[in-house]
Amino acid sequence: MKNVFHAGRTGVFNLKKTGAVVLVFCLLLTMLAGCAKRETDEQPRFHVVTSFYPLYIMAINITDGIEGVQVDNMAGQQAGCLHDYQLQSKDMKNIEQADVFVINGGGMESFMEKVTAQLPDLRVLVSSDGLPLIEAGEAHSHGTDETHEDHEDEEVNPHIWVSITNSIRQVQNIADGLAQADPENALAYQENAQQYIAKLSDLRGRMHAALDDLPNRDIITFHEAFPYFAEEFDLHIVKVVNREPDSQPSAKELADTIRLIRGTGVKAVFAEPQYPASAAKIVAEESGANVYILDPAVTGDDDKDAYLRAMEQNMEVLKEALA
């Protein structure tokens, strides 16, 4: 040790200098890494989680430009509606961190008992509250006097957002709920909601102008996603071939549908972009009807105008199919 010390007085100085440089460099790296980590791991001031895609599009419109508010979509880009969605551990972790969990209601989120059992203090915002709901298997509503609460013991059709009028009411419900949960930004939520509702209302008016006078009103669908849409635009769903989209209709169901089309003269069979159209194509080939695609807007781009674009495309498809 003595030799080292004496032999390297200059060396000792250099080692100290080098060590200081290394120390400063390491400190800089640590600070930078710490900042990056804080940016990545930093929790938003107000965290909104939506159950699936249509509600996510509504929520990003309502929260647009509001600082410190983050919106996450729990189910991500599903193949279609939630129906029998199985919660994953990452879903529960995401929901647990939410200040508000926005759901559709009407039975769409069949997993909610599990969520509320594990997270009894979770604030759940049910966007369908107060909306008239249609019973499953029915192509018409019961009228405006029956609301969500009236159907607690019944199986109802949960595809309410496919009606633009219902979508408008959901947007308002979500805005009201977020304003109550985050009063600091209440005005901003309401202003954003009104801007989006104005776009939805304009589209609804244009769709009525384009569709109300079409001569053919009878349609056949392959998933029970369109009763609210049909009600809004006075379309008659003659038959829903396959109420559960994840299964295939039987040979008897296909044969019955083909006979029905031949007997009624229905000209349009509608499949959805989220599911295979093979059964619809068989029906069309055997019956003489044409296959078209109607989008219930359960998947799409993660941007504010995605629902508007999907409905505009539906309008163009219907103009062609029912002319």
Describe the model:
This protein has 11 helices and 8 strands. It is of the alpha/beta class and 323 residues long. It folds into 3 domains: 2-41; 46-207, Nitrogenase molybdenum iron protein domain (Rossmann fold); 213-321, Rossmann fold. It has a 4-stranded parallel beta sheet, with helices on one face. The longest helix is centred in the first third of the chain and has 33 residues, at 9-41. The protein is globular. The N and C termini lie far apart (98 Å).
How are the SSEs ordered, and which strands pair?
Blueprint: H1 2-7, H2 9-41, E1 46-50, H3 53-62, E2 69-73, H4 89-96, E3 100-103, H5 112-118, E4 124-126, H6 164-181, H7 186-211, E5 218-221, H8 227-232, E6 236-240, H9 251-264, E7 268-271, H10 278-287, E8 290-293, H11 306-321
Parallel strand pairs: 1-2, 1-3, 3-4, 5-6, 5-7, 7-8
Helix pairs in contact: 3-6, 6-7, 7-11, 9-10
